[in-house]
Structure formats: C-alpha cells, structure tokens
Amino acid sequence: MVKLTVDLVEGAMQYTNPLKDRELDLRGYKVPAIENLGSTLDQFDTIDFTDNEIRKLDNFPLLKRLKALIFTANKIIRIGEDLVSSLPNLETLILTDNNIAELKDLDPLIPLNKLSFLSLVRCPVTLKMNYRLYVIGRMPQLRFLDFKRITLAERKQGRSFVKHLAPITKTDSASDNGNKSKAGAVKTFVPGAPVGKKASDENADINAASKFQEKPPSNEQQPARDFPQATLHAGVKRVIMSGGNSQDLNAIQDAIKRAKTMDEVERLHHMLSSGQYAGFAAHWHKQQQQSQQQQ
C-alpha cells in the first residue's frame, strides 16, 4: 500500500484550476492516511484526494491558505477534532461517497466557521432521520449542502430542530474519544475544538426528533417546495413535502431491499434522497403483480 511520502507530495501534479486557485492533485494513489502535508509549505488553495483509501480525516499541519478539500470515493468513517486549528480558512469540503454513518460524527465540523460548502452525497449518514435538518441546525455557516442551496425556510427549521437535541459537552466528547482510542493513546484538548455526546443521549435525541416530527409547520407558514430534503429510515415519515405519501415511501424502501443490481440500488437511492418518488407505490405494486403472474 502506497504511503503519502514527502517525495510523492512534491512530485504530484500541481496547477491553477478554473477558479484561479492553486491545486495539488493527489488522486488515485490509494494512500491509507493523511501525512507529510507540511511539505506543501502551505502553497495551495485546493488539495484533491479523490479515489484513495483514507479512513480518518485528520493529521493536517497548519494550512492557512487551504480553502478546499476533495475526498470523493475514500473510506472516511471519522473526522478529527482538531480540524479548525489546522484548517482555519476551509470553505469547501467534499466527502461524497464515503462511510460516515452517524450524525454525531459530523460534529467536529461545527467550529469551521468559514465552511460554506459541504457534500456528503452517497454517505450512509444521509439516510439518518432528519439528517439535513441536523446538519443545517448544527452548522449555520453552511450555504450549500449536498450541492443544494440552503433556504431560509430550512435554516429556521434547522434552528428549531436542534433546540430539541441534547447539548454537546466537552466531557461527553472526551469520554467518547477515550472509548474509541487505543489503550495508552494520549488525547490533547484543543481550545475551540468540537465536542460530542454521550451514547446515553441518543435516545433523548430520538425522542426529541419524534416530538418535532409530530408538529410539522403548516402550509401557510412554509410552502411545500421549501421543506428540507431529508431522507429517513424505514417506517419514519419524511420531513419534506415531496408530493409522495407514506405508501410511496414504504414502496421505494421495499424496492431498494429487493434490488438485484447496484445500478438499480443507486437509481432508487437517488429517487429517495431527492424526494422524487410521488406515485411510486402504484408503479411498484403493478410491477410486483406482473412479476408474480410471470412466475
């Protein structure tokens, strides 16, 4: 497995991209971890790590110039807590097609007060209940989430939603990180670093989210087209008004479970995440009947 050595960094392609930013191309080297970026001498606005094997977003030196990071098609499951001290001017973070699975795993991004563009497309976390509300509420500095502009209506709903969640505390974060770290590993507190929650607070958050779901805003207060595009687990209603109903939602989730090819899964997942599944139940039931008749 290739390591991100000083020689590799210095020999990688560098150029001025269409945005007139200096970019370092580290695509496709299959490196497992971030290291030796100090050798860039903070001379780049963008670094592209697409198509590598990176599992944790951490270990950056202080890079004041860096504004954009691209990590499409990696294996990232965790985000380091010290990003804000290393990347104080980060504006764009692309984490498309990674393995981040829990909402609380996104909390280390909260202190990045200049972060305006975030993509988590095709990450498991996007299927969590109230994913979009959670991210918008926790990170009011964002302007775009998953390549969609955040509306004023979404910001209001996000602020209301996070009020129902358990507060993030430093003690909880230290405890959570202690459980995940190896024996003997030393954790250093970074002032201003994001903090997590106790595992015991999960149920409180779920109950609060349920209460929030029971009182959706009226159509007079919020036009249907302005509702956030949040995807939910099976059995949970979507927050958005996409024109579909609970039968359509159950039908498309059943179709995903029965899908036989990855292309079909991707197509259905896109329909679900974008909210474009109105009338799918009738189509799915008809398809199932035809399949049974053929058998």
From TrEMBL:
BP-aspect Gene Ontology terms: mRNA splicing, via spliceosome
Lineage: Eukaryota, Metazoa, Spiralia, Lophotrochozoa, Platyhelminthes
GO cellular component, as recorded: U2 snRNP
Protein name: LRRcap domain-containing protein
Keyword Repeat applies: yes
Signal sequence region: none
Keywords: Leucine-rich repeat, Nucleus, Repeat
Sequence segments annotated as region (Disordered): 171-200
Biased composition (Polar residues): 171-180
Gene3D superfamilies in UniProt: Ribonuclease Inhibitor
Main location group: nucleus
GO molecular function annotations of the record: U2 snRNA binding
